[in-house]
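User: Modeling request: complex.
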Amino acid sequence: MTDTLQVRNLCKYYPGFSLEDVSFSLKPGRIMGLIGKNGAGKSTTLKAILNMVRPDSGDVTVLGEDFFQHEAQCKQHLGVVFGGTDFYPLKKLSTITAVTRRFYPTWEQQAYENYLRQFALDESKQFRTLSNGMKVKYLLALALSHHAQLYLLDEPTSGLDPVSREEILQILTHIVGDGQCSVLFSTHITSDLDRCAHDITYIQNGRVLKSAEKGIFLQSFDHLKTAGEHGVLTLEEIMLRTERRNFDESAL
Amino acid sequence: MNLLYKELALAAHPTSLIFAFLGCLVLVPAYPYTVIFMFGCLAPYLTFLYARETNDLWYTAILPLSKRGSVQGKCLLICAIQLFQLLISIPCVLLRNSIGVANNPVGMDATVAWYGFGLIIYAIFDLIFFPAYYKSGYKAGRALIIAALPMVLLMVAVEGSVRIPALRWLDSSSPEHLLQQIPILLLGILCYGALLPVAYRISARRFERVDL
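Assistant: Request completed. Predicted assembly structure:
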Protein backbone atom coordinates (compact mmCIF):
# COMPACT_ATOMS: atom_id res chain seq x y z
CA MET A 1 0.00 0.00 0.00
CA THR A 2 1.37 3.47 -0.96
CA ASP A 3 2.38 5.63 1.96
CA THR A 4 0.26 8.74 2.31
CA LEU A 5 3.36 10.74 3.18
CA GLN A 6 7.03 9.98 2.80
CA VAL A 7 9.67 12.37 4.03
CA ARG A 8 13.24 11.47 3.10
CA ASN A 9 16.43 13.18 4.28
CA LEU A 10 14.84 16.59 4.62
CA CYS A 11 17.50 19.19 5.49
CA LYS A 12 17.25 22.89 6.15
CA TYR A 13 20.14 24.93 7.47
CA TYR A 14 19.74 28.20 9.35
CA PRO A 15 22.39 30.07 11.26
CA GLY A 16 22.11 28.51 14.72
CA PHE A 17 19.63 25.77 13.83
CA SER A 18 19.51 22.91 11.37
CA LEU A 19 16.93 20.40 10.36
CA GLU A 20 19.04 17.40 9.46
CA ASP A 21 18.09 14.25 7.59
CA VAL A 22 14.49 14.20 8.77
CA SER A 23 12.92 11.00 7.45
CA PHE A 24 9.68 9.23 8.29
CA SER A 25 6.66 7.82 6.54
CA LEU A 26 2.95 7.76 7.26
CA LYS A 27 0.64 4.99 6.12
CA PRO A 28 -3.06 5.38 5.26
CA GLY A 29 -5.44 5.13 8.21
CA ARG A 30 -2.81 6.24 10.74
CA ILE A 31 -2.40 9.24 13.02
CA MET A 32 1.21 10.21 13.59
CA GLY A 33 2.19 12.48 16.44
CA LEU A 34 5.18 14.75 15.90
CA ILE A 35 6.64 15.54 19.29
CA GLY A 36 9.56 17.56 20.55
CA LYS A 37 10.16 20.51 22.81
CA ASN A 38 9.73 24.12 21.67
CA GLY A 39 12.29 24.97 18.99
CA ALA A 40 13.09 21.32 18.22
CA GLY A 41 11.99 21.72 14.60
CA LYS A 42 8.40 20.39 14.53
CA SER A 43 6.90 23.42 12.80
CA THR A 44 9.93 23.82 10.52
CA THR A 45 9.49 20.18 9.48
CA LEU A 46 5.83 20.78 8.63
CA LYS A 47 6.66 24.02 6.79
CA ALA A 48 9.46 22.29 4.85
CA ILE A 49 7.05 19.48 3.89
CA LEU A 50 4.69 22.15 2.54
CA ASN A 51 7.49 24.07 0.77
CA MET A 52 6.66 27.12 2.89
CA VAL A 53 10.26 26.80 3.99
CA ARG A 54 12.43 25.77 1.05
CA PRO A 55 14.41 22.67 2.07
CA ASP A 56 18.11 22.62 1.20
CA SER A 57 17.78 18.95 0.28
CA GLY A 58 15.47 16.00 0.68
CA ASP A 59 12.28 14.62 -0.84
CA VAL A 60 8.63 14.69 0.12
CA THR A 61 6.17 12.31 -1.50
CA VAL A 62 2.42 12.69 -1.05
CA LEU A 63 0.30 9.72 -2.20
CA GLY A 64 3.21 8.57 -4.37
CA GLU A 65 3.74 11.96 -6.07
CA ASP A 66 6.77 14.17 -5.66
CA PHE A 67 5.43 17.13 -3.69
CA PHE A 68 7.96 19.69 -4.89
CA GLN A 69 7.39 18.79 -8.55
CA HIS A 70 3.58 18.71 -8.28
CA GLU A 71 2.94 21.09 -5.40
CA ALA A 72 -0.47 22.39 -6.46
CA GLN A 73 -1.86 18.93 -7.34
CA CYS A 74 -0.55 17.39 -4.10
CA LYS A 75 -2.10 20.19 -2.04
CA GLN A 76 -5.53 19.21 -3.37
CA HIS A 77 -5.22 16.16 -1.12
CA LEU A 78 -4.01 18.11 1.91
CA GLY A 79 -5.85 19.70 4.79
CA VAL A 80 -3.59 22.07 6.74
CA VAL A 81 -4.19 23.71 10.10
CA PHE A 82 -1.65 25.94 11.78
CA GLY A 83 -2.70 26.70 15.33
CA GLY A 84 -2.09 30.28 16.47
CA THR A 85 -2.08 31.84 12.98
CA ASP A 86 -4.51 34.62 12.12
CA PHE A 87 -5.71 35.07 8.55
CA TYR A 88 -7.56 38.14 7.30
CA PRO A 89 -8.71 39.27 10.77
CA LEU A 90 -11.27 41.74 9.39
CA LYS A 91 -12.91 39.33 6.97
CA LYS A 92 -16.03 37.36 7.78
CA LEU A 93 -15.75 33.59 7.89
CA SER A 94 -18.28 33.39 5.05
CA THR A 95 -15.95 35.46 2.80
CA ILE A 96 -12.92 33.28 3.59
CA THR A 97 -14.96 30.13 2.98
CA ALA A 98 -16.38 31.46 -0.30
CA VAL A 99 -12.82 31.88 -1.57
CA THR A 100 -11.46 28.62 -0.15
CA ARG A 101 -14.15 26.37 -1.61
CA ARG A 102 -13.48 27.61 -5.16
CA PHE A 103 -10.05 26.00 -5.06
CA TYR A 104 -11.33 22.51 -4.23
CA PRO A 105 -13.41 20.57 -6.79
CA THR A 106 -14.08 18.03 -4.02
CA TRP A 107 -15.55 20.62 -1.64
CA GLU A 108 -18.67 19.36 0.15
CA GLN A 109 -20.82 22.23 1.37
CA GLN A 110 -23.08 19.98 3.45
CA ALA A 111 -20.11 18.57 5.36
CA TYR A 112 -18.84 22.12 5.94
CA GLU A 113 -22.19 23.26 7.31
CA ASN A 114 -22.31 20.22 9.58
CA TYR A 115 -18.89 21.08 11.01
CA LEU A 116 -19.98 24.71 11.51
CA ARG A 117 -22.94 23.46 13.56
CA GLN A 118 -20.85 20.92 15.44
CA PHE A 119 -18.24 23.56 16.33
CA ALA A 120 -20.89 26.25 17.01
CA LEU A 121 -19.26 28.61 14.49
CA ASP A 122 -21.12 31.67 13.21
CA GLU A 123 -20.12 32.47 9.61
CA SER A 124 -21.15 36.09 9.91
CA LYS A 125 -18.40 36.75 12.47
CA GLN A 126 -15.07 38.31 11.63
CA PHE A 127 -12.05 36.02 12.01
CA ARG A 128 -10.52 38.32 14.65
CA THR A 129 -13.54 37.97 16.94
CA LEU A 130 -12.99 34.22 17.35
CA SER A 131 -11.10 32.83 20.31
CA ASN A 132 -7.91 30.86 19.55
CA GLY A 133 -9.78 27.61 20.00
CA MET A 134 -12.58 28.68 17.66
CA LYS A 135 -10.03 29.80 15.05
CA VAL A 136 -8.52 26.31 15.06
CA LYS A 137 -12.01 24.78 14.80
CA TYR A 138 -12.82 27.00 11.82
CA LEU A 139 -9.58 26.10 10.02
CA LEU A 140 -10.25 22.46 10.81
CA ALA A 141 -13.77 22.76 9.36
CA LEU A 142 -12.24 24.16 6.13
CA ALA A 143 -9.65 21.37 6.02
CA LEU A 144 -12.23 18.66 6.67
CA SER A 145 -14.75 19.84 4.06
CA HIS A 146 -12.80 19.04 0.90
CA HIS A 147 -12.14 15.36 1.60
CA ALA A 148 -8.40 15.64 2.07
CA GLN A 149 -6.44 12.43 2.40
CA LEU A 150 -3.61 13.87 4.44
CA TYR A 151 -4.08 16.31 7.30
CA LEU A 152 -1.09 18.30 8.50
CA LEU A 153 -1.88 19.89 11.83
CA ASP A 154 0.55 22.11 13.71
CA GLU A 155 -0.35 22.47 17.39
CA PRO A 156 -4.08 22.27 16.65
CA THR A 157 -5.12 21.57 20.22
CA SER A 158 -3.05 24.32 21.88
CA GLY A 159 -5.41 26.84 23.44
CA LEU A 160 -8.41 24.53 23.32
CA ASP A 161 -10.43 23.54 26.38
CA PRO A 162 -10.47 19.82 27.32
CA VAL A 163 -13.95 19.31 25.81
CA SER A 164 -12.94 20.83 22.47
CA ARG A 165 -9.69 18.85 22.46
CA GLU A 166 -11.60 15.66 23.06
CA GLU A 167 -13.99 16.60 20.27
CA ILE A 168 -11.15 17.22 17.80
CA LEU A 169 -9.35 14.02 18.74
CA GLN A 170 -12.59 12.10 18.14
CA ILE A 171 -12.93 13.72 14.71
CA LEU A 172 -9.34 12.84 13.81
CA THR A 173 -9.88 9.24 14.94
CA HIS A 174 -13.08 9.14 12.89
CA ILE A 175 -11.51 10.48 9.67
CA VAL A 176 -8.69 7.91 9.68
CA GLY A 177 -11.24 5.18 10.46
CA ASP A 178 -11.93 4.43 6.79
CA GLY A 179 -8.29 3.49 6.27
CA GLN A 180 -7.85 6.07 3.48
CA CYS A 181 -6.82 9.24 5.32
CA SER A 182 -3.85 10.00 7.53
CA VAL A 183 -3.03 12.69 10.05
CA LEU A 184 0.35 14.19 10.95
CA PHE A 185 -0.16 16.08 14.14
CA SER A 186 2.54 18.15 15.85
CA THR A 187 1.96 18.94 19.49
CA HIS A 188 3.62 19.23 22.83
CA ILE A 189 0.40 18.18 24.59
CA THR A 190 1.52 14.56 24.62
CA SER A 191 -1.59 13.34 26.45
CA ASP A 192 -3.53 13.98 23.21
CA LEU A 193 -1.24 11.57 21.41
CA ASP A 194 -1.53 8.96 24.17
CA ARG A 195 -5.24 8.89 23.29
CA CYS A 196 -5.26 8.94 19.50
CA ALA A 197 -1.86 8.46 17.82
CA HIS A 198 -0.82 5.22 16.12
CA ASP A 199 2.74 6.32 15.36
CA ILE A 200 5.12 8.75 17.01
CA THR A 201 8.02 10.73 15.57
CA TYR A 202 10.22 12.44 18.11
CA ILE A 203 12.30 15.39 16.89
CA GLN A 204 15.17 16.62 18.98
CA ASN A 205 17.44 19.50 17.92
CA GLY A 206 16.33 19.20 14.31
CA ARG A 207 16.94 15.44 14.04
CA VAL A 208 14.58 12.50 14.24
CA LEU A 209 15.42 10.75 17.48
CA LYS A 210 12.92 7.95 16.88
CA SER A 211 10.01 7.33 14.50
CA ALA A 212 7.97 4.18 15.02
CA GLU A 213 4.60 2.62 15.78
CA LYS A 214 3.54 3.87 19.22
CA GLY A 215 3.98 0.55 21.06
CA ILE A 216 7.46 0.02 19.63
CA PHE A 217 8.29 3.69 20.25
CA LEU A 218 7.34 3.46 23.93
CA GLN A 219 9.27 0.24 24.45
CA SER A 220 12.37 1.68 22.81
CA PHE A 221 12.66 4.16 25.67
CA ASP A 222 12.59 1.49 28.38
CA HIS A 223 16.22 2.34 29.15
CA LEU A 224 14.98 5.60 30.67
CA LYS A 225 13.04 3.74 33.37
CA THR A 226 14.39 3.85 36.86
CA ALA A 227 14.81 0.78 39.01
CA GLY A 228 11.47 -0.54 40.21
CA GLU A 229 9.41 1.12 37.48
CA HIS A 230 7.05 -1.23 35.71
CA GLY A 231 5.09 -0.83 32.48
CA VAL A 232 5.96 1.54 29.67
CA LEU A 233 6.68 5.23 30.18
CA THR A 234 4.21 7.80 28.95
CA LEU A 235 5.18 10.12 26.09
CA GLU A 236 5.45 12.98 28.56
CA GLU A 237 7.84 11.03 30.78
CA ILE A 238 9.89 10.01 27.75
CA MET A 239 10.17 13.62 26.61
CA LEU A 240 10.94 14.93 30.08
CA ARG A 241 13.59 12.33 30.81
CA THR A 242 15.21 12.61 27.37
CA GLU A 243 15.33 16.39 27.39
CA ARG A 244 16.38 16.53 31.05
CA ARG A 245 19.24 14.12 30.39
CA ASN A 246 20.21 16.16 27.36
CA PHE A 247 20.12 19.31 29.46
CA ASP A 248 22.20 17.72 32.26
CA GLU A 249 24.81 16.56 29.76
CA SER A 250 25.06 19.95 28.09
CA ALA A 251 25.25 21.68 31.50
CA LEU A 252 28.19 19.47 32.41
CA MET B 1 -10.24 33.48 -12.32
CA ASN B 2 -10.18 31.79 -8.90
CA LEU B 3 -6.88 33.51 -8.18
CA LEU B 4 -8.17 36.94 -9.13
CA TYR B 5 -11.35 36.35 -7.12
CA LYS B 6 -9.28 35.39 -4.09
CA GLU B 7 -7.12 38.50 -4.44
CA LEU B 8 -10.11 40.81 -4.82
CA ALA B 9 -12.13 39.23 -2.02
CA LEU B 10 -9.37 38.80 0.55
CA ALA B 11 -6.04 40.37 -0.33
CA ALA B 12 -6.75 43.71 -2.01
CA HIS B 13 -6.73 46.72 0.30
CA PRO B 14 -10.02 48.63 -0.15
CA THR B 15 -8.08 51.82 -0.91
CA SER B 16 -6.34 50.04 -3.81
CA LEU B 17 -9.74 49.37 -5.32
CA ILE B 18 -10.68 53.04 -4.88
CA PHE B 19 -7.42 53.98 -6.63
CA ALA B 20 -8.56 51.87 -9.59
CA PHE B 21 -11.44 54.33 -10.09
CA LEU B 22 -9.19 57.40 -10.01
CA GLY B 23 -8.87 57.23 -13.80
CA CYS B 24 -11.97 59.46 -13.57
CA LEU B 25 -9.71 62.32 -12.44
CA VAL B 26 -9.24 63.21 -16.13
CA LEU B 27 -12.61 64.93 -15.74
CA VAL B 28 -10.99 67.56 -13.51
CA PRO B 29 -10.33 70.52 -15.87
CA ALA B 30 -6.92 71.45 -14.44
CA TYR B 31 -4.93 68.63 -12.83
CA PRO B 32 -1.52 67.00 -13.46
CA TYR B 33 -2.96 63.81 -14.94
CA THR B 34 0.23 61.75 -14.60
CA VAL B 35 -0.47 61.79 -10.83
CA ILE B 36 -3.21 59.27 -11.69
CA PHE B 37 -0.41 56.80 -12.54
CA MET B 38 1.10 57.39 -9.12
CA PHE B 39 -2.13 56.11 -7.58
CA GLY B 40 -1.87 53.05 -9.80
CA CYS B 41 1.63 52.49 -8.42
CA LEU B 42 0.58 53.07 -4.80
CA ALA B 43 -2.11 50.40 -5.18
CA PRO B 44 0.40 47.50 -5.26
CA TYR B 45 2.26 48.98 -2.29
CA LEU B 46 -0.90 49.21 -0.17
CA THR B 47 -2.02 45.76 -1.26
CA PHE B 48 1.30 44.10 -0.41
CA LEU B 49 1.42 45.92 2.93
CA TYR B 50 -2.12 44.79 3.72
CA ALA B 51 -1.39 41.24 2.55
CA ARG B 52 1.59 41.09 4.90
CA GLU B 53 -0.45 42.25 7.89
CA THR B 54 -3.26 39.77 7.19
CA ASN B 55 -0.97 36.73 6.69
CA ASP B 56 -2.14 36.43 3.10
CA LEU B 57 1.02 34.55 2.08
CA TRP B 58 0.36 31.89 4.74
CA TYR B 59 -3.24 31.42 3.72
CA THR B 60 -2.24 31.21 0.06
CA ALA B 61 0.44 28.66 0.96
CA ILE B 62 -2.13 26.22 2.32
CA LEU B 63 -4.36 26.54 -0.76
CA PRO B 64 -3.69 24.13 -3.64
CA LEU B 65 -1.28 26.58 -5.28
CA SER B 66 2.45 26.63 -5.79
CA LYS B 67 4.55 29.61 -4.76
CA ARG B 68 4.46 30.71 -8.41
CA GLY B 69 0.66 30.69 -8.17
CA SER B 70 0.85 32.99 -5.18
CA VAL B 71 2.94 35.51 -7.16
CA GLN B 72 0.69 35.11 -10.19
CA GLY B 73 -2.35 36.11 -8.11
CA LYS B 74 -0.76 39.39 -7.05
CA CYS B 75 0.43 40.18 -10.59
CA LEU B 76 -3.08 39.56 -11.91
CA LEU B 77 -4.59 41.83 -9.27
CA ILE B 78 -2.23 44.72 -9.91
CA CYS B 79 -2.54 44.34 -13.67
CA ALA B 80 -6.35 44.41 -13.28
CA ILE B 81 -6.23 47.57 -11.12
CA GLN B 82 -3.85 49.43 -13.46
CA LEU B 83 -5.65 48.50 -16.66
CA PHE B 84 -9.06 49.19 -15.14
CA GLN B 85 -7.81 52.63 -14.15
CA LEU B 86 -6.82 53.41 -17.74
CA LEU B 87 -9.97 51.88 -19.22
CA ILE B 88 -12.32 53.79 -16.92
CA SER B 89 -10.61 57.03 -17.90
CA ILE B 90 -11.52 56.53 -21.60
CA PRO B 91 -15.27 57.34 -21.28
CA CYS B 92 -14.30 60.23 -19.01
CA VAL B 93 -12.00 61.65 -21.71
CA LEU B 94 -14.78 61.24 -24.30
CA LEU B 95 -17.22 63.02 -22.00
CA ARG B 96 -14.72 65.77 -21.37
CA ASN B 97 -14.19 66.29 -25.12
CA SER B 98 -17.92 66.17 -25.87
CA ILE B 99 -18.65 68.99 -23.42
CA GLY B 100 -15.76 71.02 -24.80
CA VAL B 101 -13.50 71.29 -21.76
CA ALA B 102 -10.38 73.28 -22.66
CA ASN B 103 -6.92 71.71 -22.85
CA ASN B 104 -5.45 70.92 -19.42
CA PRO B 105 -3.56 74.09 -18.43
CA VAL B 106 -1.33 72.49 -15.75
CA GLY B 107 0.21 69.59 -17.67
CA MET B 108 -0.24 66.97 -20.33
CA ASP B 109 -3.81 66.43 -21.49
CA ALA B 110 -5.27 62.91 -21.54
CA THR B 111 -4.12 62.29 -25.10
CA VAL B 112 -3.21 59.04 -26.85
CA ALA B 113 0.43 59.74 -25.91
CA TRP B 114 -0.59 60.13 -22.26
CA TYR B 115 -2.00 56.57 -22.26
CA GLY B 116 1.22 55.31 -23.85
CA PHE B 117 3.35 57.04 -21.23
CA GLY B 118 1.08 55.67 -18.50
CA LEU B 119 1.64 52.10 -19.66
CA ILE B 120 5.41 52.71 -19.82
CA ILE B 121 5.41 54.12 -16.26
CA TYR B 122 3.39 51.12 -14.98
CA ALA B 123 5.62 48.65 -16.82
CA ILE B 124 8.83 50.07 -15.36
CA PHE B 125 7.37 50.44 -11.86
CA ASP B 126 6.07 46.86 -11.83
CA LEU B 127 9.31 45.50 -13.25
CA ILE B 128 11.20 46.98 -10.30
CA PHE B 129 8.58 46.74 -7.55
CA PHE B 130 7.51 43.08 -7.87
CA PRO B 131 10.98 41.50 -7.90
CA ALA B 132 12.14 43.84 -5.11
CA TYR B 133 9.19 42.79 -2.92
CA TYR B 134 9.42 39.07 -3.65
CA LYS B 135 13.11 38.99 -2.77
CA SER B 136 12.00 38.94 0.87
CA GLY B 137 8.23 38.47 0.69
CA TYR B 138 7.59 41.22 3.24
CA LYS B 139 9.66 44.40 2.57
CA ALA B 140 6.98 46.40 0.75
CA GLY B 141 8.33 49.82 1.84
CA ARG B 142 11.80 49.08 0.48
CA ALA B 143 10.33 47.89 -2.82
CA LEU B 144 8.26 51.10 -3.09
CA ILE B 145 11.25 53.37 -2.47
CA ILE B 146 13.34 51.58 -5.12
CA ALA B 147 10.54 51.56 -7.71
CA ALA B 148 9.21 55.07 -6.95
CA LEU B 149 12.41 56.83 -8.07
CA PRO B 150 12.12 55.94 -11.80
CA MET B 151 8.35 56.42 -11.54
CA VAL B 152 8.73 60.02 -10.29
CA LEU B 153 11.45 60.81 -12.85
CA LEU B 154 9.24 59.53 -15.67
CA MET B 155 6.25 61.49 -14.34
CA VAL B 156 8.31 64.69 -14.23
CA ALA B 157 9.63 64.01 -17.74
CA VAL B 158 6.12 63.44 -19.12
CA GLU B 159 4.66 66.53 -17.46
CA GLY B 160 7.72 68.58 -18.43
CA SER B 161 7.66 67.49 -22.06
CA VAL B 162 4.64 69.66 -22.85
CA ARG B 163 6.63 72.75 -21.80
CA ILE B 164 9.05 72.11 -24.67
CA PRO B 165 7.64 73.81 -27.79
CA ALA B 166 8.91 71.07 -30.14
CA LEU B 167 6.94 68.47 -28.15
CA ARG B 168 3.66 70.38 -27.85
CA TRP B 169 2.07 67.88 -30.25
CA LEU B 170 2.10 65.36 -27.38
CA ASP B 171 -0.46 67.54 -25.60
CA SER B 172 -2.68 68.10 -28.59
CA SER B 173 -6.01 66.38 -29.25
CA SER B 174 -6.20 67.42 -32.90
CA PRO B 175 -6.70 64.39 -35.21
CA GLU B 176 -3.32 64.71 -36.99
CA HIS B 177 -1.46 64.96 -33.67
CA LEU B 178 -3.42 62.05 -32.19
CA LEU B 179 -2.30 59.93 -35.17
CA GLN B 180 1.27 61.07 -34.57
CA GLN B 181 0.97 59.88 -30.95
CA ILE B 182 -0.14 56.33 -31.81
CA PRO B 183 3.44 54.92 -31.89
CA ILE B 184 3.84 56.06 -28.25
CA LEU B 185 0.67 54.17 -27.30
CA LEU B 186 1.92 51.09 -29.16
CA LEU B 187 5.27 51.38 -27.39
CA GLY B 188 3.40 51.57 -24.05
CA ILE B 189 1.34 48.48 -24.87
CA LEU B 190 4.50 46.65 -25.94
CA CYS B 191 6.38 47.67 -22.76
CA TYR B 192 3.50 46.67 -20.47
CA GLY B 193 2.81 43.42 -22.32
CA ALA B 194 6.47 42.43 -22.30
CA LEU B 195 7.76 43.72 -18.96
CA LEU B 196 4.93 42.51 -16.70
CA PRO B 197 5.56 38.83 -17.60
CA VAL B 198 9.29 39.46 -17.02
CA ALA B 199 8.48 40.97 -13.60
CA TYR B 200 6.33 37.93 -12.80
CA ARG B 201 9.03 35.42 -13.81
CA ILE B 202 11.80 37.14 -11.82
CA SER B 203 9.47 37.51 -8.80
CA ALA B 204 8.33 33.88 -8.92
CA ARG B 205 11.93 32.67 -9.12
CA ARG B 206 12.92 34.84 -6.18
CA PHE B 207 9.87 33.91 -4.09
CA GLU B 208 10.60 30.20 -4.49
CA ARG B 209 13.72 30.79 -2.40
CA VAL B 210 11.85 32.69 0.34
CA ASP B 211 11.07 30.99 3.67
CA LEU B 212 7.69 31.96 5.13
